Amino acid sequence: MLPRELPRDGEIIKAVATCHSLTRINGVLHGDPLDLILFNQSRWTIDENCGSERSDDEISRFDTVQPTVVKPPPEDVPIFRSSDFAVIRQFTFSSSLQRMSVIVNSPVEETGRKMTLYSKGSPEMILSLCDKTTVPDDYLETVNKYAQHGYRLIAVAKRDLVLSFAKAQKVPRHSVETGLELLGLIVMENRLKPQSLPVINELNRANIRAVMVTGDNLLTALSVGRECGIIRPNRTAYLVEHQAGQLAADGRTQLTLRQSVSSSEDILDEQLNSDPLSPELQGNYQLCIAGPTFAVVCHEYPELMDNLMTVCDVFARMSPDQKQFLVNHLQTLDYIVAMCGDGANDCAALKAAHAGISLSDAEASIAAPFTSKIPDIRCVPIIIREGRAALVTAFAIFKYMAGYSLTQFVTILQLYWIGTNLTDGQFLFIDLFIITVNALFFGAAEAYDTLCSKPPPRRLLSPASMVSVLGQLTIMLTTQLFIFVWTSQQTWFIPFVPSPPDEEEVKRSQQGTALFGVSVFQYLTLVAMYSKGSAHRKSIFTNRYLCLTLFVTTVASFYVVLFPADWVAALLDYVKIPDMTRIFVVLIAAFSSVLSFIFNQLVVEHLIGNMGARWLKQRRLRDPNAETDKWERIMCRIGHDVSWLRKSVRQIGADQASIKSGATVDETTPV
């Protein structure tokens, strides 16, 4: 549309072309994306060179005030009666004020004192600053009509000023942003990015709640929320509102509800003068609230905050502090919060969230730990999948290392009973060849392609993790103890005799060889069991390096246990046992592995992981205030007992070393 076709000869275009914070960097305009779109649509140009391109000239004028100059297209110069306009003063955008303003010099005035203030911002805020005689009677009705259909609205106003250049640089903002003349509304179609709906649906399928927090109009946010799937079509949406000065019976500000009709986004006329979180609203529903009402709830209805956070999915007209408060309060409700944002208003919330994701390279990227190279929310499922896979892998490595340590611990404990230990060669084969080589590629599994509806455990000392580790310890202890006793009852068995104190210590024993043969396969069982694919990781067969190392170490273990050459036996420094006994040891190890997999699949994953989770969810629904840290205290106690047991075993070893060397033992030493 041409300027001459607009009211006041296109004065609103002049406001759009001057009221912004754009700047030119290396010849390219940078700034707020919305300002950039509006400025480009105006077809005006911006000039910050002040007539010189030399960098040394720019440096020499660094301390001087050089206003930004904007110029209309040549064909529109007669309409605007000037070829350039100088922006003398800029009042930057503030979320709390919901507006920005500029003071523009009118060059047609010979005295240079005639200036114009242009202001743009939210329709509600500009309305409060305008002279009511310049505002049409159907202003709010028009705003609501467009907002209900998802359009984004910006109100524009002006005020003529008579100021000197020096006074324009010092005049307070509040003294000029008053008594404005409304120029009109800029209506923009708030098109949803095509990637948004599939991402929101994927999050919904995974039972991950999506919440919209925006500075836009409440009705606009509600419309976009329905379009992108945050407000579900099978749920009823209510607007939580308040009327300033209208008090309830208890003296607090009255909260009201208005129901939104999903088909046309119109708002029903009836109002429910009741608690918006009362049992009157049965079934599936979602709430939407604006920043001013949110502030009322925070200050006057703190007892409703927890319930509000769980059912309110659209927060509009939110200030940066309110966004940060929302993130912090969700975290107190035991939510894991990820936040997406692209502007300076989102920095505080991005920093407060567990995972802040910046969708731009501007200020938000400084505060957020993650910055997406694509300006949409496709990165959210990726970060969730990778984070869950990393968490599951870390817990699996913990269980693997804990299982390995405890398995070796029970082996050494049994050999201590007869006064010996594993040989140095056996220790090296286990620790260096089996454990370390497989651990190098344990975490190389990739994240699963889709999000799972069941989240991973959030605590390292969860019931499933501890039952898994302790259950595997019981199975492996029982198996090793059986082999230890069975070996001592064979006709070919020769009991171990400790070396005299004055001779070199010999650790080789037939029971040690038998335990070594069983334990190496138990370590491999732990690798295969804890690295298998889960709901959050791909299958172990996609981890080619781990499959290769697991195959090589398994073949080597079979060779060492069943068919060791003399030089291998000498290298590992162990006593050979009969062939049939070695085969029997391998069969017992295979039985132990099968039993371990069955226990992990049925007891840990099915009984505790699935049924236990359902029971815990039902228990929390029955008693929301139930104590949740009981298992943590139990696990801490178990950890204390294991630590005490480790110290006891080390003391036993030290005492045995003292006896062999002829030293005395303090009988009062606690063991």
TrEMBL record:
Transmembrane segments: 391-416, 428-448, 460-486, 545-563, 583-604
Subcellular compartments: Membrane
One GO process term, biological-process aspect: intracellular calcium ion homeostasis
One term of GO molecular function: polyamine transmembrane transporter activity
Membrane topology field: Multi-pass membrane protein
Pfam families: Cation_ATPase, Cation_ATPase_C
InterPro entries: ATPase_P-typ_cation-transptr_C (IPR006068), ATPase_P-typ_cyto_dom_N (IPR023299), ATPase_P-typ_TM_dom_sf (IPR023298), HAD-like_sf (IPR036412), HAD_sf (IPR023214), P-type_TPase_V (IPR006544), P_typ_ATPase (IPR001757)
Reactions the enzyme catalyzes: ATP + H2O = ADP + phosphate + H(+)
Entry annotated with the keyword Phosphoprotein: yes
Residue ranges of every copy of the Cation-transporting P-type ATPase C-terminal domain listed in the record: 422-595
A GO cellular-component term linked to this record: plasma membrane
Keyword tags: ATP-binding, Magnesium, Membrane, Metal-binding, Nucleotide-binding, Phosphoprotein, Translocase, Transmembrane, Transmembrane helix
Main location: membrane
Family under the similarity heading: Belongs to the cation transport ATPase (P-type) (TC 3.A.3) family. Type V subfamily.
Protein name: Cation-transporting P-type ATPase C-terminal domain-containing protein
Organism: Mesorhabditis spiculigera
Lineage: Eukaryota, Metazoa, Ecdysozoa, Nematoda, Chromadorea
